Amino acid sequence: MALKTAQMAEQLELFGCIQCGKCTGGCPVARKTTLNIRSLIYHLLVDSEMDVSAHQELWDCTACFTCVERCPKDVQPAELIIALRGELVESGRIPETVGTALMSIFRQGNPSSMAREDRELWAEGVEADLERAKQAAQEGCDLFYFVGCIPSYDQRVQPVARALMRVFDRAGLNVGTLGTDETCCGNEVRRMGELGLFEMLVEENGEMFRGIGPRQIVTTSPHCFNTFKNEYGLDGVEIMHYTQLLAHLLEEGRLTFGGSVASENGDAKIVTYHDPCFLGKQNHVFDEPRAVLQAIPGVELVEMDRNRERSLCCEGGGGRMWVEGTNLEERLAFQRVEEAAGTGAEILAVACPFCLLTLEDAVKVRGLDEQMQVMDIMELVDLALGEDSEQAATS
Amino acid sequence: MEQQPRIGVYVCHCGVNIAATVDVEEVAQAAASLPGVVVARDYTYMCSDPGQMLIRRDIQEYELNRVVVASCSPRMHEPTFRSAAQHEGVNPYQVEMANIREQCSWVHKDKEKATRKAKALVASAVAKARYLHALEEREVDVIPGVVVIGGGVAGMAAALDVADTGFPAYLVEKAGHLGGRVADLHRTFPTLESVPDLLEPLVARVHEHENVTVFLNSQVSEVDGYVGNFQVTIHGQAGGDNEGPGEQSIEAGAIIVATGYDVFDPDRKPEFGYSDYPHVITSLEMEKRLIEGNLTVEGREPKRIAFIQCVGSRDIQLGNPHCSRVCCMYTAKQSRLVREKLPGADVTVFYIDVRTFGKGAEEFYDEARSSGVLYRRGNVSEIYRKPGDPERVVLIAEDTFLGEPIEFEADLVVLAVGMEPRGSASEISQLLKLPRSADGFFLEAHPKLRPVDTAMSGVFLAGCCQGPKDIPDTVSQAKAAASSALIPLVRGSVPVESATAVVSEELCAGCGMCVDVCPYDAPALDPLWGVSRINAVVCEGCGACAVTCPSKAIRLQHFTAEQIFAQVDALVV
Questions:
Q1: How far is A304 from chain B (nearest CA, A)?
Q2: Cβ-contact A219, A352 below 8 angstroms
C-alpha cells in the first residue's frame, strides 16, 4: 500500500521539522523497537511514496506524546503516527486485536467485547447511589461523572469507580451518571487511527453532554479526561480528572478522612506516585494527585527519580492495551516498577486504569508483589475514609 | 488667503520598475486634465538630479504652488521632493506623493489594469493636493547630553563615544558595579582573551572620564519630554556608590537603551532535571567554574562531560523561536578549555546545527574539534540519574547520524542556555514607549536601514536588549547608537513634525479621551479652561486623538477631513 506522502506532509505541517531528534531521543519505545518517528518524518518529506504496511512498528507507539510535548518546532510527531495508523485502518491492514477492540467499541460501546447492558455491573454495592445519579443525569445536573470503559468492566478497576461514588455521597455532591447508556469516549480510538469512529463517538457523546448540560465533568481515567478536555470542543464545561476534584474537596474541607492507611503498628506507608502520561505530560496535572496523597493519613510520599514531566510511560496508552507491539521482551512497565521498588515504596500509587493494570502485572511478573502493592489513589482514599470503605464492606 | 492651486504632476518610470507595468505617459496625460493641474510630465528617474531640476524649473516657469510626484513610497523619497520644492519656495507640506510602485506596479501584472489604478492614485493625490496647506517648519534646541541606560559593555561603549565627543553622558546601572553580564565570563571567544583584561580598563576609563557620570544601584523611573529635550528621573537605591539614594532629574537630548538580556532558566525545561542533579549546570555556572579552576562535581573530577546546545533557544513551544547566536561559540570555547584542563576526559557536544559565523569563529570551531572535542548531532531529550549510580546521569537522545536512540552517561552536563528579553523589558517599554518585536526584544525602526533607531525619535538601542549578540557586535551597535544619538546634539537643534494635531478650543468639551488615547502623552487638559491642549513638539501626528474626539474638535494637520474626503472622492468617482 503506497501512500502518496505530499498531502500528509503538508496537512501535518511536517516541513517545520529540523530533524533534531528530540522526538526519537525521548521516545520510550524507540529504544526497544525500530520505531523512529524522526526518521518517519524525514521519509515522509523526501520520499514521494511510503509503504505504510511495512511499518508494523507504528503499533508500538503508546501515544504518550512525549515527542509532542518536547518538539522545539511544535511539529506534533505523534500526530503523524496517528495519521499513518489511519491509513492502515482505512485499508484494513491492522492487527486482529485492534480490529476486535474497534469493532467492540462500535457495537457495544467498549473495547473489551463486553455486553453494553453489563456496563453498570461495576456499581455492585453502590446501586442506590448509581440509581440516584442516573436520575440526576436525566433531570440535568451540574456535575457529571463519566465512569469509562475499563473502570466499568474490569474487575480490578471497578473498585475505583465505586470508591469515587462513595466520595460523591460523602461530600454531598449531586452527581449524574449514565449507567448502561454510557459509551466509550474514543480517546484510544483516535490514537489507533480510526478517525471515522472517533468522530461518531464525539458526536454522540457531545450530544449527550449538551442534553444533560453539566458545568463540570469528572472522569476516572486520564484518557477520557484528555479527549473531553482537548478534542470534544465542550466550551464552557470544566473537565476534571477525579484527582483534581478530590484535591479541591480536600482543600475546601468538604472531605475529611476518618481512618488511615498506616500499618497496624502505626508506621506510615511509603508511597510513590507514577504520573500517567495523559494526566501529567499531556495535561500538566502534576500537583493535585500529590496533594491528595499527602492529605491521606498514614501516607509518606516519596518520589521516583523520573517523575512529573520525566515519568516513564507504562505502555498502556495509544491502543497498546489491545496490541502487543513488536518487542514483548522489555516492557517499560517492568522498568518502571523496578524504579518504584528502588525508592523503598510499599505502595505504587497510580491515577489511571491502564497504569493500574500494566504496573500491577509487571509487579507480579517481576516478583515484587511481596514488597510492593499497586493501588489507585482512589483506593487509598477509600481506605482512609473509614467505615463505609470497600475493605470495610468486603471484610 | 490661500492661493489658487497650481499643481505640477510628475510621473516617474523608476527605470522599468514602474514603466514596465504602468503606461506612465498615459498616466501623465490623464493627470494633465485634472482640475488645478497646470503641467504633467513623466521622466525616467524623478529622484535623480535632472528629475529634481525638472520639477524645480517648472515651479519657476509655471508658478506652481503644489507638487504631486507619482513614484515610490513616500518613505523612500518624500524628503527628496520636499526639499526640491522648498528650494523654489514651495512649502514642503504642499508636496504630495502617489505611490504607484510598491502599491501598484510591483504588485500587479496586467498593464491595462495597473495603468487604470495608477491614474486613480494620481487623481486622488491631486485631489488632496488642492486642499494642502502650508505648514510652518519648526526646530527646537537640543539639550547637550545623553542618558545611557545599562552599564554593561554596550552601555559603557556608547557612553564613552558620547563623552569623547565632548558631551556629558549619564550612565545608569542597576547593579552596584559596571560590566553587566560580561563580568561573569572567564574568557572571550574566539581569541580566548581574559575577561578582566578586557573589562577592567574599559570600566576604569568610564569611571575616570570627566564627561561620564555613573549612577550605580540606580534605575530610570520616569522619562518625560521628546527628542532634544528629555527629562529623565533616576531613582538611586540605598548603598549607591558615588550617588546617594533618592531621585534625581537629568536633562538630556537623547537616550540610549542598553539594558541587556536575561539568561534562560533551565527549570523551564524540566526534562533536564537541572534543579534535581548537581551534575547538571548552566553555561554561566561553567564560566564561574572555569574562573575558579574547579570542575569537580561533589568533589569528583568528571571523566565524561556533555554539552547540550540550544537550551531555551530555537524553541517555538517555549516562546523563544530565536537563535541566541553566542551559544555555539561559547560551547566551543568551554569544551576546548575543559579538554585543556582535563586532557583525559571525554568531552562531547550535542548539537542541532553549529553556527559559527563571526570573524575567526569557524576557525575556532575547527580548533575545538581538533583538540578532541566530539560533536554528536542530536537534541538531548531527557536526563535522569543512572540507576544504581548516583555519581552519574544518563542523557537520552537520538544520534541522528546513526539514526539510533542512545543513552549517554556523563558526570558533568553543561546546558548552553540562551538569551531572553529582560523580564523588565515591558517596564522599560512602557517608560520609553518602545515597541518590541515578536521575540520580545526591543524593536528597531528598520531591520536593515535603521538598526539602532526606534519608533521614538531620540531613543536608540545598543546591545542585547535589541536581540542576542556577541561582544564585537554589541560594541559595534553601541558605537552606532552613540553616533546616531550625537546627530541632534552636534546639530544643536532638531526639526519637529509639523503635521500635528490641533484642538479647536470652541468645540472641545474637555472629555479627556484624547489624553487617554495618545501614545506620546502629547495632549493635556488645561485645568483652568477645561480644554485639551496638544504639545506640538511631542505630537507625532499619528491621528489617534483626531479620530477619537467625539466633538470633532481635533484636526490632524496635513490629514484633515477635507483632504481625506477629497482623496476618497477622487477614488470612488
A1: 10
A2: no
Q: For residue A30, which residues of chain B lie inside 8 Å, CB to CB? A: 398, 405
The phi, psi pair for B182, rounded to 5°, reads -60, -30
User: Is the pLDDT at A395 greater than 50, yes or no?
Assistant: no
Q: Is A15 on the interface with B (CB under 8 A)?
A: no
Give the pLDDT confidence of B171-218 residue by residue, as tens digits: 999 999 999 999 999 999 999 999 999 999 999 999 999 999 999 999
pLDDT in tens, B85-116: 999 999 999 999 999 999 999 999 999 999 99
Contacts of B405 in chain A (CB under 8 A): 24-25, 27, 30-31, 36
How confident is the model at residue B239, as a pLDDT?
Answer: 46
CA torsion sign for A237, A242, A246, A248 is negative
Chain B CB within 8 Å of residue A342 CB: yes
Mean pLDDT, to the nearest integer, of B24-49?
Answer: 96
Give me the helix-helix angle, B74-87 and B49-62, nearest 10°: 50
Q: Which residue of A has its CA nearest to B351?
A: A20
Domains of chain A: 2-94 (1.10.1060.10), 116-251 (3.40.50), 269-394 (3.40.50)
- Report, in angstroms and rounded to the nearest whole number, the Rg of chain A calculated over CA atoms: 21
Considering only CB atoms, which chain A residues are within 8 Å of B278? none
Distant-in-sequence, close-in-space partners of B565: CB < 8 Å, separation ≥ 6 = none
Cα A187 to Cα A230: distance, rounded to the nearest angstrom: 10
Question: What confidence score (pLDDT) does residue B240 get?
Answer: 46
Q: How far apart are CA B125 and CA B318, in angstroms?
A: 47
d(CA B349, CA B376): 6
CA distance A320 to chain B (A): 21
Residue carrying C-alpha cell 508511597: A271
Distance CA B122, CA A65 (A): 58
CB B223, CB B233: distance < 8 Å: yes
pLDDT tier at B520, thresholds 50, 70, 90 = confident
Contact criterion met (CB below 8 Å) for A170 and A126: no
CB B315 within 8 A of CB B418: no
Residue with cell 497498546: A320
Calculate the alpha carbon distances from B478 to A295, B122, B170, B173 in Å: 57, 43, 15, 16
State the pLDDT confidence band at B1, using cuts at 50, 70 and 90. very low
The answer to whether the Cβ–Cβ distance between B384 and A310 falls below 8 Å is yes
Contact A26 B271 (CB under 8 A): yes
Residue A29 and residue A325 in contact, taking contact as beta carbons nearer than 8 Å: yes
> Which residue in chain A has the smallest CA separation from B403?
A39
Q: Name chain B contacts of A72, Cβ cutoff 8 Å.
A: 310, 314-318, 379
Tell whether A73 is within 8 A of chain B (Cβ): yes
Q: How many CB atoms lie within 10 A of CB B194?
A: 14
- End-to-end, the C-alpha distance of chain A in Å comes to 58
Nearest residue in chain A measured CA to CA from B398: A25
Give percent above pLDDT 70 in chain B.
98
Contact assignment for A25 to B353 by CB distance below 8 Å:
no
Q: Which contiguous run of DSSP H or E holds residue B416?
A: strand B412-417
> Edge-to-edge strands of the sheet including A143-146?
A175-176, A143-146, A216-219, A238-241
Query: What pLDDT does A388 receive?
Result: 64
Residue B154 near residue B475, CB atoms below 8 Å? yes
Test mutation, A305, A327, A338, chain B, max B CBs within 10 A: A305
Instruction: Kindly state whether A18 is in contact with chain B, defined as any CB-CB distance less than 8 angstroms.
Output: yes
Chain A residues near residue B270 by CB distance under 8 angstroms: 308-310
Query: pTM of the prediction?
Result: 0.85
